[in-house]
């Protein structure tokens, strides 16, 4: 076990929970720790690039994709979402308080060398293709995560 290694499972696509995951991840990386973020199930929506489209999807995969938020700008809040008004209010308050927005947090995480891994099994189940993810994301299964987690001093589930 290494005290300077951290892993975070990002299961949720709620904007507030995803922000917490990136705040912790970038904070740990800024302190010199090695960080791996493993995105699974709903958390995969964080990694979907709104500008990219995947080809070769079945009808059900396309329908599933339409029902899920695509990219960080579309993420709901876990509480007080109010049909999308809550996230807009949250973003307004973040800008007013000079808090970094999620796209900037993701870019910063990549610059700090944080490894972002998309769960291959969840991608298959949810019909998400590699070519619709943001650049720099690795694909891996549970063995990838468990290998990283077994070496880490801190493992979080968000």
From TrEMBL:
<protein>
    <submittedName>
        <fullName>DsrE/DsrF/DrsH-like family protein</fullName>
    </submittedName>
</protein>
<feature type="transmembrane region" description="Helical">
    <location>
        <begin position="20"/>
        <end position="44"/>
    </location>
</feature>
<dbReference type="InterPro" id="IPR027396">
    <property type="entry name" value="DsrEFH-like"/>
</dbReference>
<keyword id="KW-1133">Transmembrane helix</keyword>
<keyword id="KW-0472">Membrane</keyword>
<dbReference type="InterPro" id="IPR032836">
    <property type="entry name" value="DsrE2-like"/>
</dbReference>
<keyword id="KW-0812">Transmembrane</keyword>
<dbReference type="Pfam" id="PF13686">
    <property type="entry name" value="DrsE_2"/>
</dbReference>
